[in-house]
């Protein structure tokens, strides 16, 4: 029997039992923070050598450039070669700049607002209104960025194979104020969604009312597999080129979750036109990227094989944590009317759905029991999940023992929130 099928008397009994279990958990007095998808210390240790690299005397790039000095604004040729594997572009169309892919997305957005991109008739900020399509659930930092600049966000549903393309095609064809779309095409944050080749083809070939429409293609989890299979998807830059829209896709990636968050290297790839435009703009704010850090990364990761070997080592650390969450949820959340969650093949998150109106309360109960989760609603524009039913679980940072406990605490909090709701309404909505 599901919670929904119980009569009031049975529901009361179940509720008291869950409350008891929840209170027992709370009494343990644990204190864990799972708000963000951070690598665990053992993962950071995999790149520990970076702290000693490149080492005194090693300042020469493969082309003989002296990395201690100014020069080479596109990044080291060998770093562009390595990062080209993450962004799916030839090295000549790949720029390696700074440590943060989010900062590159921000730059592209802000330069477009101030100056318009290479296909704009006006700077975006001078348009009456501009809008971005936001597949939901999505990445909160994307949404915070667009909100910060007054760009209206238009949620579109994210299905099992990517954004709902009927909805997307209709919106972009009709509305010239839609200038962009956020996409995390593989192992999406937070759903783990993998865009199908047919979705990618439709995104590349759809007709857009705005001539300067851009896909912000955030390849944050390109090599972050959770299974032995290294899943590959269609190449968006090639698809856009063949569809006659070579400037449409902007591809971003970084090694934040490969080496060190904040101490990695970031890349941007696009058409020759877009790259030229972007280089011209960033050339006004900086003369040369940190090529010493690029050199350091090349010593640790001389080729793609080394990159995959490192990612395999990450997988061996984090996959058991995802499994521990699944095991706890399988044990505590057997009633499918209480929770449904994803079993991602890569990335950093598990996405979970409760019945309507229970997510915020579940996060509140988890917090009271000592488990800090991502705030409910964070995966939606303006932090507003209209159903109040989505939770993001970030299993990577805690130790195995901690994650086992935390997952149990989350499951109990969800069960309690749902049974509270069922008691007050005695009619759960989905
Ligand atoms: N995009 C996505 C989808 C992310 O989950 C994250 C966080 N790891 C980032 C971008 C941030 O990347 P960076 O550290 O390169 O700015």
From TrEMBL:
CDD domains per the UniProt record, alphabetical: AAT_like
Domain of life according to the entry: Bacteria
Annotated protein name in UniProt: Aminotransferase class I/II-fold pyridoxal phosphate-dependent enzyme
Organism (species): Halomonas piscis
Keywords noted in UniProt: Aminotransferase, Transferase
PANTHER family recorded: AMINOTRANSFERASE, PUTATIVE-RELATED (PTHR43799), ASPARTATE AMINOTRANSFERASE (PTHR43799:SF1)
Pfam family, one: Asp_aminotransf
Record-level Gene Ontology MF annotations: transaminase activity
InterPro entries on file: AspAT_Ic, PyrdxlP-dep_Trfase, PyrdxlP-dep_Trfase_major, PyrdxlP-dep_Trfase_small
Matching SUPFAM superfamilies: PLP-dependent transferases
UniProt keyword Membrane present: no
């Amino acid at each position: 029997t599901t919670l929904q099928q119980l009569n009031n008397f049975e529901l009361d009994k179940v509720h008291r039992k869950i409350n008891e279990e929840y209170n027992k958990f709370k009494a343990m007095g644990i204190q864990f923070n799972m708000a963000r998808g951070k690598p665990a210390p053992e993962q950071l240790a995999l790149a520990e050598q970076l702290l000693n690299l490149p080492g005194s005397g090693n300042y020469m790039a493969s082309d003989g450039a002296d990395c201690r000095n100014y020069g080479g604004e596109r990044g080291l040729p060998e770093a562009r070669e390595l990062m080209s594997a993450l962004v799916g572009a030839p090295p000549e169309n790949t720029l390696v700049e700074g440590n943060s892919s989010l900062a590159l997305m921000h730059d592209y957005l802000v330069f477009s607002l101030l100056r318009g991109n290479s296909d704009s008739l006006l700077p975006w900020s001078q348009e009456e209104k501009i809008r971005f399509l936001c597949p939901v659930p999505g990445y909160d930092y994307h949404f915070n960025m667009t909100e910060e600049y007054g760009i209206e966000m238009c949620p579109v549903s994210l299905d099992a194979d990517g954004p709902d393309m009927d909805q997307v095609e209709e919106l972009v064809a009709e509305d010239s104020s839609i200038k962009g779309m956020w996409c995390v095409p593989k192992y999406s944050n937070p759903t783990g969604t993998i865009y199908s080749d047919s979705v990618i083809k439709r995104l590349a070939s759809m007709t857009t009312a705005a001539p300067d429409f851009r896909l912000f293609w955030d390849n944050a989890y390109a090599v972050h597999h959770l299974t032995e299979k290294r899943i590959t998807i269609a190449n968006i830059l090639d698809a856009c080129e063949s569809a006659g829209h070579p400037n449409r896709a902007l591809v971003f990636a970084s090694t934040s979750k490969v080496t060190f968050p904040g101490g990695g290297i970031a890349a941007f790839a696009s058409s020759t036109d877009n790259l030229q435009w972007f280089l011209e703009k960033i050339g006004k704010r900086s003369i040369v990227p940190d090529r010493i850090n690029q050199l350091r990364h090349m010593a640790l990761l001389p080729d793609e094989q080394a990159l995959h070997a490192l990612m395999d080592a990450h997988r061996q650390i984090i996959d058991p944590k995802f499994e521990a969450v699944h095991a706890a949820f399988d044990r505590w959340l057997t009633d499918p009317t209480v929770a449904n969650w994803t079993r991602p093949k890569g990335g950093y998150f598990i996405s979970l759905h409760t019945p309507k109106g229970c997510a915020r309360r579940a996060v509140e109960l988890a917090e009271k029991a000592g488990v800090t989760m991502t705030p409910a609603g964070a995966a939606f524009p303006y932090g507003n999940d209209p159903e109040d039913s989505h939770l993001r679980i970030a299993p990577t940072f805690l130790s195995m023992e901690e994650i086992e406990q935390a997952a149990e605490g989350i499951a109990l909090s969800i069960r309690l929130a749902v049974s509270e709701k069922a008691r007050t309404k005695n009619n759960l909505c989905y």
